Amino acid sequence: MYTKELINNFKEIFTKDNIQIIAHRSPDGDTLGSCFALCEALRLYGKNAEVVCSDDVTPKLTILTEGKTELSSTFKPNCIVTVDVATADLLGKKYSETASKVDYAIDHHYTHKNYAKKVMLDGDCSSAGEFLFNLFEQAEIQINSKSAQLLYAAIASDTGCFKFSNTTHETHIVASKLLRYGIETEDLLKVLLDEASIDYIKFECDVINNMKVYDGKIVLLPVTKAMMEKNNIAEGETDGLSYLLRRIQGAKVGATLRESDEKIRISLRSFGDTNVAEIAAKFDGGGHVKAAGCSFKGDIESAEKALLEEIRKTLI
Amino acid sequence: MYTKELINNFKEIFTKDNIQIIAHRSPDGDTLGSCFALCEALRLYGKNAEVVCSDDVTPKLTILTEGKTELSSTFKPNCIVTVDVATADLLGKKYSETASKVDYAIDHHYTHKNYAKKVMLDGDCSSAGEFLFNLFEQAEIQINSKSAQLLYAAIASDTGCFKFSNTTHETHIVASKLLRYGIETEDLLKVLLDEASIDYIKFECDVINNMKVYDGKIVLLPVTKAMMEKNNIAEGETDGLSYLLRRIQGAKVGATLRESDEKIRISLRSFGDTNVAEIAAKFDGGGHVKAAGCSFKGDIESAEKALLEEIRKTLI
């Protein structure tokens, strides 16, 4: 159970009106599902509320945003809430100057850096979706099945559908309670987690056919601009490629290297005890033990060579 | 809560010794995880018990079978139990004559056709794993974390990791209780559900590059022997291909067509309202509304043509 203060802070939002809810930049299923679940709940309480985001929503995630790709302001807010936004920087370009005006931040990242007037944080939750459900329940705020479905989508997005180690016994309890709203999940999860365009699936095949395996346990996936152009893939669509690394039997450390403007964007994954944040730090990047990122100035071949050298030094 | 009779039947198994537990042929994660969970529980009660199966275990599923590929008898049983075996036919060649000797059948298929002396059945359970957990709990049989992990694997296997519509609020409650045993699940689920050999991943790419899309919503994946040989893929390894169909945006009906000895094996999937069992029936096959199978005598091109014609007739 959360403290009375935390629950009262949450209840306070429902006493306001003209509420703007901000999702983090490069929005994912957790931030969008949670923001829209909160928005729906506020509307159910007769409030004027809307979700905004600095960046566009990728096509598959529009299933969570009432079909909208662009989420921008239509009214002047009296109350600003962020959901799943761990730092002011993650508000994105459009809302970078909003940081000091944020009234409430609702987040589940232990790494949360305070920027809001009031913060509600539970780092033990798998996702913002799980935390938000707990808040609704403990504040006795009624939600409808639309909100429940959005929260389920949020949780499924951040846990890889209950597959990652952030899934706890409490995550499953929340999922169970959400299913009791009689929500449809199979088609929704298919769209969110499995489906891809034929162009994208063929692009993945090109990436696989270009895969480099070293010492049987280091896998590099170089992605050139030419590969993306050939298959009509936009930059934002390549984020799911790291999941491919997870599929490769025997891979201990994997990385995608993507040609971007004037630099190579590198995303690292560890499937063992190697700390990939250490590797990313060598290239002025950062992240977590199992997932980290950095960038490299130079061509993709040089990036591969430099990265391989650092991985070999660090690999456990 | 189950009836006293059902629970007493289950408890009876724990009064026997030299217990043989039979998994269904072409064993999957649910039958193997459940059988080994029961075996472990019986051993914890000091019983001599082992799991057998007519067919070999595929490499990735050996994570559930203590590394064993072949599961055969090492002792003469005094008690025979089947888990997840819906019909006598599914005992497979090696155990086809055992049907009349089966003492207890534990199953979750509504379609269960009675062959055992005593049947325990709950068709509302997502998986044999979920049902078995309920039995352990209600019969107050203590299990250890090894059994708990095997049951979690069984449930995750049959529900596509809580993704398919057989996942209920009760499935999540069971999953939550199993996680309280402190079991590791992330690495296990990676092996079971995501990982594939590089050969297999490249084989999938060949299959995708050979994909046929008709009317924007019918997808056929023809798989020739040459494609399998080129990538060192054995017949039993191609079962996961149907999952590829699920990934293709816009597909309403999909099918894999696989060259086998003297026939083409067809596996159908529906992602809408079309009943693919009806289509399979045209080729003397059968199955469920959303997943069905049949075979075709002739070459793969003729099979594609005949199948496409029937799909077009039935497609909703």
Key phrases:
homodimer; 316 residues; alpha/beta; inorganic pyrophosphatase (n-terminal core); Diaminopimelate Epimerase, Chain A, domain 1; 2 domains; 6-stranded mixed sheet; 5-stranded parallel sheet; 11 helices; 11 strands; 37% helix; globular
Largest sheet of chain A: 6 strands, mixed
Radius of gyration of chain A equals 20 Å
List how many beta strands of chain A DSSP finds.
Answer: 11
CATH class wording of the largest domain in chain A? Alpha Beta
Spatial strand sequence of the major β-sheet of chain A: 6-7-8-9-11-10
Query: What is the helix tally of chain A?
Result: 11
Based on the structure given, which CATH architecture of the largest domain in chain A is correct? Alpha-Beta Complex
Structural class of chain A: alpha/beta
Order of helices and strands of chain A: HEHEEEEHHHHHEEHHEEHEEH
**How much helix is in the residues of chain A?**
25-40%
Oligomeric form: homodimer
Contiguous runs where pLDDT drops below 50 for at least 5 residues of chain A? none
At the fourth CATH level, what is the homologous superfamily of the largest domain in chain A? Answer: inorganic pyrophosphatase (n-terminal core)
Specify which chain pair forms the largest interface: A-B, 40 and 41 residues
Query: Given the C-alpha coordinates, what overall shape of chain A results?
Result: globular
- CATH topology category name of the largest domain in chain A: inorganic pyrophosphatase (n-terminal core)
